[in-house]
Design goal:
The protein is of the alpha+beta class and 196 residues long. It has helices at 2-27, 176-195, and strands at 40-47, 52-53, 58-70, 73-80, 86-95, 99-101, 105-107, 110-116, 121-130, 139-147, 160-167.
């Protein structure tokens, strides 16, 4: 009987541990048990095609997530926490052949998942407006991350990408009415010179 009691206690402990792990996985999908024998090298790049940004201007980031293989990556987690100086932000996700975007669009910070066969990609287009009160001279940095969940990633060093712009003052463009008066003034000056 003592031996049976030990078995029951061991089984109960096993069930409690199993249930705890299951709940941990459900509450945090990034927790998983990846087999190193099956691997897919995730990679990411990010750019807005510029090195400067003007307060009040629209900024568009292009983020490309890929899988160098050799095996598929299912349920890879993609995150991008937007800068506090961003507003009116929205994003889309476009999957290539062999890839799946769990969400095709959204607003605000990005926290979604991707299926990526070897050689496939998912392209995010993130659009936002830089706060008109942004301080000139500061750096605007945005970082995106892709994280393996179900399959081992042999090279996590290429799972994060950032883009940094320096905030600069915008160029002063004359209002149309002001520009028209300026042109009239120049024309009048030329006429006076010819008359003189």
């Amino acid at each position: 009987l003592a031996g049976q009691g030990g078995v029951v206690r061991a089984w109960s402990a096993y069930r409690a541990m199993r249930n705890a792990l299951a709940w941990s996985f459900l509450l945090s999908p990034a927790i998983a048990f990846a087999d190193p024998a099956i691997s897919g090298d995730l990679n990411i790049s990010k750019t807005d095609g510029a090195i400067t940004a003007v307060p009040g201007a629209t900024i568009i980031y292009t983020i490309v997530v890929g899988n160098n293989g050799p095996d598929p990556q299912f349920g890879a987690r993609f995150t991008d926490d937007l800068p506090s100086l961003f507003s009116s932000d929205s994003w889309t996700c476009l999957a290539s052949s062999g890839a799946v975007c769990y969400h095709s669009s959204g607003t605000g910070d990005i926290n979604t998942f991707l299926d990526l066969l070897s050689g496939s990609t998912a392209t995010f287009t993130l659009t936002g407006i830089l706060d008109a009160a942004a301080t000139v001279g500061i750096s605007l940095t945005n970082t995106a991350t892709i994280e393996a969940v179900s399959t081992f990633d042999p090279n996590p060093s290429n799972n994060t990408a950032s883009d940094t712009d320096t905030v600069i003052a915008g160029s002063s463009v004359p209002e149309p009415a002001t520009l028209a008066l300026f042109c009239i003034g120049l024309a009048g000056l030329g006429f006076a010179r010819r008359k003189g």
